[in-house]
Amino acid sequence: KILVVDDDEAVIDLLHAKLAKLYDVVSTNAPERALLLARQESPDLIICDIGMPEFDGADVSWALRNDSGLRDIPFVFLTSLASPSDMQGLGELGGRPAISKFCSTAELFAGIQKMLEGYPDAAVKLREQLTQRASQAMTDMRDVRALLDTGDAPD
User: Which residues of 145-154 are buried (b: 16+ CB within 10 A; e: fewer)?
Assistant: First the structure.
């Protein structure tokens, strides 16, 4: 499960569309709610915008690092301050990995995979989730194929 924190609903919607293909995604556009949501949802990864008014990504990062129950959750900054080529995949801001808001879906997934190399437990959980999604997709495809073969498909 991935928690996305960004004050811009359009960015949340875009990331949700990209990430939900492979992962369960929860989000908030209120960064001050990020810790509460992290406690409730137990995400395997947090992707957080760095530039938000009042309570910014650095504040979220600091609060997570100072919470013994949340400090070990992998965390990636999301930034519009740099292009994907500037970041060359996964960069770093304030000692945390960072990725550009303008990266492609492939770059986003590659950045997530690279970042999770340092967090084997989170990587295993996300791989299990991916395997479950792939298995469900295969089952759904077989069901559709069976409906089409029998001619019982709705018009």
Answer: eeeeeeeeee
